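## Example pair
The file below holds two records. Each record gives the amino-acid sequence first, followed by its structure token line.
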Amino acid sequence: MVPWRRAPAHIPETPLARAPGRVQGNGMWDKIKRRFNARRLLLLVALAGVALYVGWRTGGFDQTPEQKPCEAGRKEIKDDKGKVVQVTRTTCFEDKK
């Protein structure tokens, strides 16, 4: 027997216990322990670390969105009756670099 493995839980010999698909233990904690063993948790943490590193290095966490290009034009704001209430004109200047 391997020292880091525990012996399986004892399941009583009843027809329900021998049913196909029956898992050992009834509690939710037992199911969680079987599903997430140490090796699987270590793999998940390693993958999360790699994803975090790649996101950091590629600039995926930058909070400054790019500015939209200026669109010159005219915008009319109308009321409920369709009458023009306000006119806004936009003029764009080219950046000199």
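Second record, same layout:
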Amino acid sequence: MPRKVGLIGYFGSGAYSDDLIEHVTKKLLLDARPDITFDSTLLSRGEAASNPDYLNSFDLLIHCGGSLLGKCTHYPIRDIAKWVDKVRVPLAVFGLGYRFEPDKEPLAPEMRERIRLLFEKSEIISVRGPYTVKHLKENNIDTSKISSLADPVMACDIEVKRYPTLLVGNVRDMPPVEVQHASTVNVQRFMAECYDWLIDTYDIPLMLVSFRHNLEYDNDVKGADHVIWLMRNRRRVTNYKPYTYLEAVKLLGGAKFYFGQRLHPTVFAATQGIPFVGVEYQFDKMLDWASTVGIDNVIHTRDATLESFIEAHKRVEGNMARLRETMPLKAAEIRATAKKIVELI
């Protein structure tokens, strides 16, 4: 009889990065144990908080997804204190990251308590990287049960057809409260200058790809519009909104070079051997991942100048060589963690 696994995370919201994480997580777990089935819809919407019978109908619960640790208002971490003590089946944390927001640190006591309860109840804990561990420790959260530092997308098996004829990028629309070291306008001007430099250097067009799908508000499309307006080469730029996460990642196959602000398109580019520079806009997501694979072609918004980008671009070749060594090791680590988690059943 198939064993039933519940994936708890920020899924179904139109965030393609989270959809990609869901895809990879399911594949890793199925590779380790083919006789499992999934439900990752209801648990993403908070219904679990008031339905202990539903929670305990699973054979295993896994809290996965993106940056759901920290001062996060998304389900399910917001309501974890309501449901975690009702769990009577094995629980694990798989690849979660910490969302660092300086203006909201340290965490409020109730938020620390939610994460403490989650970690106390979980039998296996894997998080994204050392920055996540650092921020948890700064909030006096016990990290002794963390056994792995790896982002699940490093083990992504989606293969895209490579036709490197474009520059590809991604831009977030960032309200000022989210930017610690520079104003939104300055960051957008920085992105525009870098994209102009790339177009001048490579002499090929640029496609900015949205990793959000929300019919009412798409902050990637809006952010890209602002950047394009500031560019000299705006006539050579396409602002494209895919309609599935698979379409979004497959567009990266056309990248001769990738430069963007969202973490998981950057990680995916790394899995495909696509040269890239990433932008850490504040939350320590990009630095968290980059530190696990030993690369330094990531720019923080505090260092957001064209000169810093050009210097990072010079380091790309060496960093890509390093990734060819470290990424397979991290992919193997995350697969081993997935195997240990399904063995809890």
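Notes on the second record: The mean pLDDT is 88. The longest helix spans residues 316-342.
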